[in-house]
Design brief:
Elements (H helix, E strand, L loop, with lengths): L7 H12 L4 H8 L3 H8 L12 H18 L1 E2 L8 E2 L10 E4 L2 E4 H10 L8 E4 L12 E4 L1 H13 L7 H12 L5 H8 L3 H9 L12 H14 L1
Helix pairs in contact: 1-4, 2-3, 8-9
The structure holds zinc ion.
Zinc ion binds next to loops.
């Protein structure tokens, strides 16, 4: 097989163009080579002794830099809390981050960087905490558009947003102590008793560790009666 020989300058130039985003097909036409050869040169498998930026390394490095930029704009807390986005916010209420020169949702970028998961067609990212600015990967998962609308409906209809994750942790602790009733806790947090029950059982805030199970309830109830 005959391969047209490239000068060192041409190889460097080709690699620079590849890094700038020129496709193998375009480069193949420009340099009168097969797309396979272009790919091998761009990846550094051919002309190993010649310099120039290597496409894959370049991409990887730029992603790493972006990742550092990204997490600097996130208020990272403990595992269970919401990690709020501190950067730009779009009209839809979600955080915005420029990724490969395209602005996309900050929560989306959080999934890409934390799990290497790129959003697939028809899938949206759901917030289990219903906090649009939250970038805690543990609160994010893929779902359909319909499921996402349902999340929002539930969040808007229910009073769960009146409680923070910290509140819920405290509420569960208070209840376990056996010294407080649902009503007393509801009054303290100025929410309904049903909000407290749901948060205790983990029907809401299911992502917060330590929901109160049935056996805990009986135990806590007995304890309460003894204390009263
Ligand atoms: Zn969250």
């Amino acid at each position: 097989m005959t391969r047209s020989k490239l000068t060192n300058d041409q190889v460097v130039h080709l690699r620079e163009l590849a890094c700038a985003g020129y496709s193998n097909k375009t480069l193949a036409e420009m340099f009168h080579l097969s797309q396979n050869s272009i790919s091998s040169i761009a990846l550094g498998r051919l002309y190993q002794n010649v310099g120039g930026p290597i496409r894959e390394f370049f991409k990887k490095r730029s992603d790493d830099l972006r990742e550092k930029d990204f997490w600097e704009k996130v208020e990272i807390q403990d595992e269970s809390s919401c990690w709020l986005w501190k950067g730009k916010v779009g009209a839809n209420g979600y955080g915005v981050f420029k990724f490969h020169s395209r602005p996309i949702g900050a929560h989306q970028v959080a999934l890409i960087f934390s799990r290497g998961e790129y959003p697939k067609h028809g899938r949206v990212i759901r917030h289990s905490c219903n906090v649009k600015l939250c970038c805690n990967p543990g609160h994010l998962r893929y779902g359909t558009d319909a499921e996402n609308s349902m999340d929002t409906l539930i969040a808007n209809a229910g009073p769960t947003q009146k409680l923070s994750v910290e509140d819920v942790l405290n509420i569960r602790k208070l209840y376990r102590s056996g010294l407080f009733t649902h009503r007393q806790i509801a009054e303290k947090y100025m929410v309904s008793t049903s909000t407290i029950s749901s948060a205790l059982r983990g029907e809401t805030f299911s992502f917060v560790p330590g929901p109160v199970r049935k056996k805990d309830l009986i135990h806590a109830g007995k304890h309460y009666r003894k204390a009263a």
